[in-house]
Design goal:
The protein has 406 residues and is mainly α. The protein has one domain (4-393). 70% of the residues lie in helices and 0% in strands. The protein is built from 15 helices and no strands.
Length: 406
C-alpha cells in the first residue's frame, strides 16, 4: 500500500533525478575523445533517462516533442547528405551517432528541467555546491598537468573539463549574489572559492570568457553598487591568492600567454597548435569552399599536420567551414541567430549564460563535445507562461529568488 508520505518521497526522487541527471550529462558528454570507453560511458549513462522518460513525458506538450523530433530529423538528414561525400565517412557516422544520442537525450531532459522552477533551482544549487567542493579539492591536490596529454586518473583532472563547469557555476553564483537585497555571506564565500578554483584550472580560454561574462553581468545588473563593488574586489582577491598560494604551473600558463602575445618568437604549444589548426583548416576550406569535406572530414587530414591528440578544430564555426563549407556556416549562423533572438527575450542573465556556452564552443573541442550549447537549443521550444513573459519584458526587475525565467 502506497501512503501519502511514500508518494511524496517518490515525487521528490523524480524532482531530484532530472536536474542531477542533466548536470551529470553535461559533464559526461563534454568528454571529447571518441574512444570505445568514452562512447560506452555516454551510452550507459543515457539509458536510465529513457527508463524514466515515460513518467516525465506527460509534463511536456506532445506538440513540442514532435517539433523537436522534426527539427532533429531535418538536421540529421543534412548531416547524412554531407557524409555521402565525406573524406572520412566512418568518423562522420561516429560523430552523427554521438550528436543524435546527445540530442535525443539532452534536449528533452533540458526542456523538462528548464520548465520547472524547482528543478532549475536544484540544478543551480547542485552545480554551485559541486564547483565549491571541487575547487577546494583542486587547491589541496593540484590535479592539473598541462605538459602531457590527458589520461584518466583520480588525481589527474582535465583542466578544460573542470573549468567549463566551474565557469558556469561562477556565473550562476554571481546571479544569486547580485539579486540579494542584503549581503549573503555563504553566497559570497562560494563565489570566492569558485573564482579561485577557476584560476587554479589554468584554462586560459575559459578564464577569459568567464571574466568577460562576469563583468557583463555586473554592468547590466540593477543590483546596488556596494554588492557590485564587492564582486569586483572578489576577483582581485582571487587573483592575489592564485599568484601567491596557487601552484606555480597555473600562473606560469597565464604569464606565458601574455609573453607569446607580446613576443611572437616565444613558444606555447597549445597556442601554437591552435594557430596551426586555423591556418591549415583555411587551406582545406579553399580546396572545398562550398560543401566542405563532409561530416568527419577534418579527421581525414589532421594526422598529417597535427599531433595525434588533436582530432577536432577547436571552433564550431571552423568545424562547419571545413566540413560543411559555406553552406554549413550559413546553416549554423542562422540557427544561432534564431536561438539568440529567442534567448534575448528571456532576460540578460540567461543571455549571458548563452554567450558563455557559445564562447566555450569558439575555442575548444567540436560541436559534439559542447553539450551546454546544445542544451540551449531546448530553450527555443519552451513556451513561456504569462508570468514568465511579463518578467522577461521587465528584465526581471523584482527578483526575490534567482530563477531562469522561460
Amino acid at each position: 500500500m502506497i501512503t501519502k508520505d511514500s508518494s511524496k518521497i517518490l515525487i521528490s526522487i523524480n524532482e531530484m533525478y532530472l536536474p542531477l541527471f542533466l548536470l551529470g550529462f553535461l559533464f559526461v558528454f563534454s568528454i571529447s575523445n571518441y574512444s570505445l570507453i568514452s562512447i560506452s560511458i555516454k551510452i550507459i549513462y543515457s539509458l536510465p533517462f529513457y527508463f524514466f522518460f515515460k513518467d516525465f513525458r506527460k509534463e511536456v506538450e506532445s506538440g513540442i516533442l514532435r517539433r523537436i523530433l522534426l527539427y532533429a530529423l531535418f538536421i540529421a538528414g543534412y548531416f547524412i547528405l554531407t557524409i555521402l561525400y565525406s573524406k572520412n565517412q566512418g568518423f562522420g557516422l561516429l560523430k552523427l551517432f554521438i550528436m543524435a544520442l546527445s540530442a535525443v537525450t539532452l534536449m528533452p531532459a533540458a526542456l523538462l528541467v528548464f520548465n520547472s522552477t524547482r528543478q532549475r533551482n536544484i540544478f543551480i544549487n547542485s552545480l554551485i555546491a559541486f564547483a565549491s567542493i571541487a575547487s577546494l579539492i583542486a587547491f589541496l591536490v593540484s590535479p592539473f598537468e598541462y605538459s602531457t596529454t590527458y589520461s584518466f586518473s583520480v588525481f589527474r583532472w582535465s583542466h578544460v573539463l573542470f573549468s567549463r563547469f566551474i565557469g558556469l557555476a561562477l556565473l550562476l553564483n554571481l546571479c544569486l549574489v547580485l539579486q540579494q537585497k542584503k549581503r549573503n555571506l555563504l553566497l559570497n564565500l562560494s563565489l570566492q572559492i569558485i573564482l579561485f578554483g577557476l584560476l587554479l584550472s589554468g584554462a586560459r580560454g575559459t578564464i577569459i570568457i568567464s571574466f568577460f561574462c562576469y563583468l557583463t553581468l555586473l554592468f547590466f545588473s540593477k543590483s546596488v553598487n556596494s554588492i557590485k563593488f564587492i564582486a569586483i574586489i572578489q576577483i582581485v582577491l582571487a587573483s592575489v591568492l592564485f599568484f601567491t598560494i596557487g601552484s606555480s604551473s597555473g600562473p606560469d600558463r597565464l604569464v606565458n600567454m601574455q609573453n607569446v602575445i607580446l613576443d611572437r618568437s616565444k613558444i606555447d604549444e597549445s597556442m601554437t597548435n591552435h594557430i596551426k589548426i586555423l591556418e591549415i583548416s583555411i587551406e582545406r576550406f579553399r580546396e572545398y569552399p562550398v560543401l566542405g569535406l563532409g561530416l568527419g572530414g577534418f579527421n581525414s587530414f589532421y594526422k598529417t599536420h597535427f599531433p595525434e591528440e588533436i582530432i577536432y578544430p577547436h571552433n564550431i564555426f571552423l568545424e562547419a567551414l571545413v566540413e560543411q563549407g559555406i553552406v554549413g556556416c550559413l546553416v549554423l549562423g542562422i540557427l544561432l541567430y534564431l536561438l539568440s533572438r529567442r534567448i534575448m527575450r528571456l532576460g540578460m542573465k540567461v543571455y549571458v549564460m548563452f554567450l558563455f556556452a557559445l564562447g566555450l564552443a569558439m575555442y575548444s573541442k567540436d560541436f559534439t563535445s559542447n553539450p551546454l550549447l546544445l542544451a540551449f537549443f531546448a530553450v527555443y521550444f519552451i513556451k513561456p507562461s504569462d508570468d514568465d513573459s511579463r518578467d522577461a519584458k521587465l528584465h526581471i526587475q523584482n527578483e526575490n529568488q534567482f530563477q531562469l525565467k522561460f
